[in-house]
Amino acid sequence: MKKNLLKMSTLVVLMTFVMSFANAQTKTPSCLSANGSSITQTTPSYVPDFSGKAVILAESFDGTTFPPTGWTSAAGSGTYNWVRLTASIHPSGIAPHSGAAMISYPSWSAGTGKWAVLTTPVVNLTGNTGAFNVTMWMHHDQGYTNLDVVDIYVDTTASLTGATLIGTVYRPNGTTGWEEHTFTIPAAFNTATNYFMFKATSAYGNDIYVDDISITSPEAHDFGVLAVTPPFVLSGSSVIPTVSIKNFGTTNEATWSVTLSDGGSYTSTKANLSTIDSGATLVVPMDNWTPADGAYTLTATTTLTGDANPANDTMIVNCFVGSYNGNTFTGNTTGLTYNTIDLSNGTTTPVGTIGSSPFPMCEEFDGTYIYRIYNNLTIGIVAPDGSYSPLGTMTGVSGTPTGMAFSWESGNPVMYVVVLSDANLPQLCTLNMSTLALTLVGTGTEGIIIGMDMADDGFLYGPSINPDNLYKIDPATGATTSMGAIGIDISYGQDVTFNHEDGLLYSITCDDVANFGTYSLTAGTFTTIQSIGTDQHATLVYTGLGDVGINEINKQSNLIKVYPNPASSIVSIVADDYLTIQTMKVLSITGQVIEEMPINNYIAKINVSNYEAGVYFVQVKTEKGLFTKKITVTK
Question: Among candidates 187, 210, 123, which has minimal Cα distance to 158?
């Protein structure tokens, strides 16, 4: 497809082409067994145990008839459907979770966005008060980061139209092997006629494998692990890992424990921190962990007397410890490699892999982590080896996200995201990094912005694929102003990154040839440093220290002094020139409020001894305005 055709089309057509272009490439798995072709797993010894439960439905798919009696299966998009298998295909070597067979949706073969739905027979939940659960086992692998997914719906009719989504499970989730997923059925479904629908959607990754679907009442005693953090730790850092646990049982539990191990010298156990009511969850902070660089396997296990369901007691996740080292990273979505790039000559060096579906739209560094946004509005953290850990889905503004930029200029940590509307107009938004909620700042009147970053002048800049101009975006209003024509044709997904040390906006443009170079912020023109082939590079991010946000903070007035800095215990904040500190707020690097308090004095003190090591920002309000200071906490 040529660029002039894209200019007459919409971004939807652009993204469709990008997806089909990526899907046409040869698949290169990111993790293989020693023989380079499969993941080997021994046959599990799982036997379903429903003792103490009211079993409404239980299906292991061991019978040779598929769909089983009363079940239905239909391809909703495309020709691929759910199938029954006795052994896996992509990847090979996976045995059913139990018994002779399992079910699979062939995401490996189905195109991106293709889906099929498997529907249960009618299920009678008369008298349900919210106590019933639906459970399935899914096999997870990390062969591709493409987010193949199963969504679980319930409704009083056997149709997805108007159905209630009660659970979502992605094939790649940071673990490898069979994992149990249990979701509470809403109490509203207390009728005699209910259907549960398992919708598999392909992202063109590995096949989806599911087994042992059941609908039951919960056990009297049942604890399980929901999540383990962190997925990534910076070199030399000390962190407090967390384990999220849930009481799936009907009994409030006061006596319990959870243990976390890294497979080496670190083991931490916490017990009886509080009573966890039936159905409640608790995020448990574990002991401080100071790992050396490398790849770790974190194993979390709960212990509860009388736990009737040991299958959900343990979760194993991968964690990478390393440093970005001030490098610039780029995601090659043609070759499916994640690379460092030399800003002086455009030379790339592979460090990991990247998927192409969902399509990675952009990346940004906030001083601690690289964040990546996909075309489906999902966002996560990228480690220096390219591994990706999803955080969730952005909400609040609809459209296709195409760029993100981080800034501290306003006195608050701000992550900006540009989202193209259905009319292909750039909607500038702020992103709450805690809730992932997008808030619209304003909409520009022109420019299909395809990447964005903030420069030292406090404005956002991004190229447009129609027209081929560089635009300046006002962070206060979202208004777009053309700085001039780029001078070359650009197409498809691409990114930009600003290096405050040399004041240049870098990009790897994409059309018939990939050109690495810089944009002029005053004239808009693109200057090629090096042509680097024909591969598409969808993401580009600079991680040098002293990024634009920190640079802006250092330009603020010295009326507020902080000492000692770095600190490990007490930090003093002192206002000069007879100013009064009215209020004080401590923010994490991601914008989360750690502490907030009234002061009404010229001096304030913070005890940081319980803080995790890292960078924080102290925001003080005085009669002369708002001031933000950076502090570094050491251990």
Answer: 123
Nearest-CA neighbor of 89 among 104, 111, 67?
104
Report the alpha-carbon distance of residue 315 to residue 260 in Å, rounded: 10
Quick: pLDDT tens for 406-453.
985 544 578 999 999 999 999 999 999 888 999 999 999 999 999 999
- Residue 606: CB atoms within 10 Å: 22
| DSSP H stretches of helix in 442-567 | 548-554
| Common-topology check for domains 223-321 and 556-633 | yes
Angstrom CA distances, 529 to 244, 344, 364, 449, stand at 48, 8, 22, 22
CATH fold of 223-321, please? Immunoglobulin-like (2.60.40)
CA–CA gap between residue 357 and residue 540 (Å, rounded)? 17
* Separation CA 549–CA 589 (nearest Å): 11
Give the C-alpha distances (Å, rounded to integers) separating 78 from 105, 115, 163, 206: 12, 7, 21, 17
Neighbour count for residue 618 (Cβ, 10 Å)? 23
Q: What span, in angstroms and rounded, lies between the C-alpha atoms of 18 and 24?
A: 10
Alpha-carbon distance 406 to 2, whole Å? 33
Determine whether domain 556-633 maps to CATH 2.60.40.3080.
Answer: yes
Q: Could you say which DSSP state residue 399 is in?
A: S
Judge if pTM exceeds 0.70: no
pLDDT band at 513 (very low <50, low <70, confident <90, very high): confident
Q: How far is CA 581 from CA 58, 300, 560, 577, 624, in A?
A: 63, 44, 9, 11, 10
- Owner of token pair 């979701």: 183
